[in-house]
């Protein structure tokens, strides 16, 4: 009797919208596994069509025409995040473990000037504490990659692992965190209020999104991308029929109380949208001067005239200069539709 030769296999986990880690078995030689084939395996396991899947690992989207080995740190037991693509019309654990056995040189760190330091692939010198701080800061501040603070070159996961800056467990945590950050920063990613599933809106012209997970569970499946309420207009894909949807943000901007900005003494609305066209998040001035930094996109801008800082140059002058008040922003802004923003809108509007 002829024995069948067994092919070595390994397990890769896919994290779904319920934060479950679902095992997917693939050949151990990842050069043989295309991303498209992996999506088919996910479809067989979860019933989500391959075309409706967006797979994310280490802050990067896995492309259909690549193989799993093209992502060096994607190995056995790694976590891949699954985001659904939505069609319109109808752990916050951070990196804390740095390996002690890192070769050092007797030169000062480029950041804190302490010795000894490490020479990174980009050529800059870092001490262990600054490597730890830079890696953790990238994860904390919703970055999708770790970059050198000096030359701004990317520290890939393979480089970080190869030079021993973070241990194996830390690499997995970092990859998961960068993937979560990419999901959060994507303006088109939407969290379904019915099941908590993350999905990506495919048609930007339509605000009606259909959740297949809710449909499978016999729940209300059509919701509004802007206000996250149940869709009430069956014949429309752009107007949900909820009066609060169109007016909530507009009312927040037009009814914002005026306040006097410290140092300059200029009176302006207390609520603005971030002037970065790729962000547009709602911001309320709390205290101090007019110079602001958006916590979402890190854009520096003037809260009074809405001019954006270019490098270290503020077009409207110093923090005490009385610049011209920009009009209330009524249109042309991209508004983030994450769950925290929707909760903030509902809290303000009652």
Comma- or semicolon-separated keywords:
disordered C terminus; alpha+beta; two-stranded antiparallel ribbon; 9-stranded mixed beta sheet; flat; about 20% helix; about 350 residues; 4 domains; 7 helices
Strand content: 15-25%
Structural shape: flat
Rounded Rg:
24 Å
Q: How many structural domains does the protein architecture include? A: 4
Order of helices and strands: EEHEEEEEHEEHHEEEHEHEEEEEEH
Largest sheet: 9 strands, mixed
Structural class: alpha+beta
Helicity, as a percent range: 10-25%
What do you see in this structure?
- The protein is of the alpha+beta class and 350 residues long.
- The protein folds into four domains: 9-87, Roll (Ubiquitin-like (UB roll)), CATH 3.10.20; 118-171, no CATH class; 189-241; 247-349, no CATH class.
- The protein is 22% helix and 20% strand.
- The chain has helices at 35-46, 128-140, 157-162, 168-185, 212-216, 243-254, 339-349; strands at 9-15, 21-27, 53-57, 60-61, 79-88, 118-119, 125-126, 146-147, 154-155, 189-191, 198-201, 208-210, 222-224, 258-260, 267-269, 271-273, 282-284, 291-293, 300-302.
- The strands form six sheets. Strands 1, 2, 3, 4, 5, 10, 11, 12 and 13 form a nine-stranded mixed β-sheet that branches. The chain has a two-stranded antiparallel ribbon with strand order 6-7.
- The N and C termini lie far apart (75 Å).
Question: Helix and strand layout, with pairings?
Answer:
Blueprint: E1 9-15, E2 21-27, H1 35-46, E3 53-57, E4 60-61, E5 79-88, E6 118-119, E7 125-126, H2 128-140, E8 146-147, E9 154-155, H3 157-162, H4 168-185, E10 189-191, E11 198-201, E12 208-210, H5 212-216, E13 222-224, H6 243-254, E14 258-260, E15 267-269, E16 271-273, E17 282-284, E18 291-293, E19 300-302, H7 339-349
Parallel strand pairs: 1-5, 5-11
Antiparallel strand pairs: 1-2, 3-4, 3-5, 5-12, 6-7, 8-9, 10-11, 12-13, 14-15, 16-17, 18-19
